[in-house]
Amino acid sequence: MEEYKFGKTTKQMDVRTLESPLRATFVLTRSDIERLKQRVMDRPDPAQKPFRCSTFSVACRYAWVCFIKARRYVEDRTVYFSFAVDCRTRVDQPIPDLYFGNCIAGVFANASGRDLGGKDGLATASEAISGAVEGLREGVLKGADKWIPSYAALANERIVTVAGSPRFRVYDTDFGPRKTEVVSIDRTGATYIGNCRDEEGGMEIGLVIPTSEMSAFSSFFNDELLNA
Ligand SMILES: *[C@@H]1O[C@H](CO)[C@@H](O)[C@H](O)[C@H]1NC(C)=O
């Protein structure tokens, strides 16, 4: 247990300890990403408007779908996905480029576990994540006074949370790391998504999950790509 202080209140935050954790990094190469984007953009119904699809967001959609399947959350129950967005350009009074500090908000998407694990899982994930990002137009700080209690309420739900960002460009640091990891994810349960060391346009997805789930995740990850 760790203590986090928010203003006047002090709240305990549960951190997990896994029975037999395994840490792994999965790589989406640039060509994997291109194929996934294509699959997301070729919508079965041409009347539907195409999804916007950044490299980061396609990695998120894919990780979410593989997670849902590996965890066997494929049932008619709401599952969640959350990641941070940079608010600097999204607030009413834009913040100068030289501002050095955090200015982020959480984005929460939700969908039915059954739909995400189904044949059109990637489209379902896209619908949910694009919808949540669209929602930011209403004001990135909307409802900020309720963020803390609503985050706390989601802690007991089936949620995938992203740690990291490809914008951090961790491999560009001048000491040239061979491998980067977000070490806290074994306790926070988050999923790391960042850029790839070996290839511009590729993505790394880092996980710490029980050994028993890792092989399922790995096989979904690889199978789905073959069919992409
Ligand atoms: C699910 O997402 C939609 C669209 O962003 C939102 O209107 C709805 O309140 C969310 N539902 C839950 C249970 O979080």
Write structural notes for this entry.
With 228 residues, this protein is of the alpha/beta class. The chain has a domain at 39-197: Chloramphenicol acetyltransferase-like domain (Chloramphenicol Acetyltransferase, 2-Layer Sandwich). It has helices at 30-41, 55-70, 113-117, 121-134, 147-154, 185-188, 211-226; strands at 2-6, 9-13, 21-28, 78-86, 104-112, 159-163, 191-195, 203-210. β6 (159-163), α6 and β7 (191-195) form a beta-alpha-beta unit. The protein is globular and about 45 Å long. The protein starts with a strand and ends with a helix. The relative contact order is 0.21. The model has no long low-confidence stretch (mean pLDDT 87). Residues 78, 110, 131-132, 135 line the site of 2-acetamido-2-deoxy-beta-D-glucopyranose (NAG).
Summarize this, please?
This protein is α/β, with parallel strands linked by helices and 228 residues long. 33% of the residues lie in helices and 24% in strands.
Fill in the keyword field for this structure.
228 residues; alpha/beta; Chloramphenicol Acetyltransferase; two-stranded antiparallel sheet; 8 strands; 33% helix; globular; binds 2-acetamido-2-deoxy-beta-D-glucopyranose; Coumaroyl-CoA:anthocyanidin 3-O-glucoside-6''-O-coumaroyltransferase 1-like protein; acyltransferase
